[in-house]
Design goal:
It catalyses: AMP + H2O = D-ribose 5-phosphate + adenine. Belongs to the LOG family. InterPro entries: LOG, LOG_fam. It comes from Tianweitania sediminis. There is one protein chain. This protein is an alpha/beta fold. It has a single domain, classed as 3-Layer(aba) Sandwich (Rossmann fold). 40% of the residues lie in helices and 15% in strands. The chain contains seven helices and seven strands, in the order βαβαβαβαβαβαβα. The protein has a seven-stranded parallel sheet, sandwiched between helices. α1 runs parallel beside α2.
C-alpha cells in the first residue's frame, strides 16, 4: 500500500439539524491539513461540505474541490472558492466521482444524505471487487452511521457481501481519531484485513 497523502471526504451539502455536524466537519478538515494531507472533496461551500473545506483552509491545508457545473449554483456560494488552491469544474457526477477516487488515497464519510451514502457505497463496492485497498472510514459521530453498520452486518450475515474481507470500513466515533486511524492503516498495510480493522 502506498502512503496516504490525500483524503477524500464525502458529506452533506446541508448543515443538518444540530451544530455538531458543522463542528465535526470543520474539525476534520483542520486535522487533515495539520497532518500534511490534501483534502479532496465535492467542491461545495455550504453545509458540512463547506465546513470541511473551511477547516482545512484555515489550518493552512491544500484543498481540491471537484464539482459538476450544474451544482455550482446549488452547492456553492458565489466567491466562496477563493481559499481553494484547486477547483475542478466537470460536466457530470460520474466524472466527479471518478476524479475524486483517482486523486484520493483514503475515504471518509461524514454525516450526509443520499448522495453521501451513494458515494461511499460505490467506493465499498469497488473494494469488494478488488479494485482498491484504500482505507474507508465512517465518521460515526453520535452514532449517525449505526444503521449503516447494522445493515452491512445484516447483508454479510445473509451471504450477500461477497469477498467480505475486502469490505471492512472502520466506524470511528471521535473525529480526532480519524486521521490517526488512516495513517495507522497505511503504515501497517493492513487495510482490508478483518483481523486488524477497528470499529471505534
Amino acid at each position: 500500500m502506498t502512503s496516504i497523502t490525500s483524503v477524500c471526504v464525502y458529506c452533506g451539502s446541508s448543515p443538518g439539524r444540530a451544530p455538531h455536524y458543522l463542528e465535526a466537519g470543520q474539525a476534520l478538515g483542520a486535522q487533515i491539513a495539520r497532518a500534511g494531507l490534501r483534502l479532496i472533496y465535492g467542491g461545495g461551500t455550504r453545509g458540512v461540505m463547506g465546513a470541511v473545506s473551511r477547516g482545512a483552509i484555515e489550518a493552512g491545508g491544500k484543498v481540491t474541490g471537484i464539482i459538476p457545473r450544474f451544482l455550482l449554483s446549488k452547492e456553492a456560494a458565489d466567491g466562496q472558492h477563493a481559499g481553494l488552491d484547486e477547483l475542478l469544474v466537470v460536466d457530470t457526477m460520474h466524472t466527479r466521482k471518478h476524479m475524486m477516487f483517482e486523486r484520493s488515497d483514503a475515504f471518509v464519510a461524514l454525516p450526509g444524505g443520499i448522495g453521501t451514502v451513494e458515494e461511499i457505497i460505490e467506493i465499498m463496492t469497488w473494494a469488494q471487487l478488488g479494485h482498491h485497498r484504500k482505507p474507508m472510514i465512517f465518521a460515526n459521530q453520535k452514532g449517525f452511521w449505526n444503521p449503516m453498520r447494522d445493515l452491512l452486518d445484516h447483508m454479510a450475515a445473509e451471504g450477500f457481501v461477497h469477498t467480505a474481507h475486502n469490505v471492512q470500513p472502520m466506524f470511528i466515533e471521535a473525529v480526532d481519531g480519524i486521521v490517526p486511524a488512516l495513517l495507522g492503516a497505511s503504515a501497517t498495510g493492513n487495510v482490508g484485513d478483518e483481523r486488524v480493522i477497528r470499529r471505534m
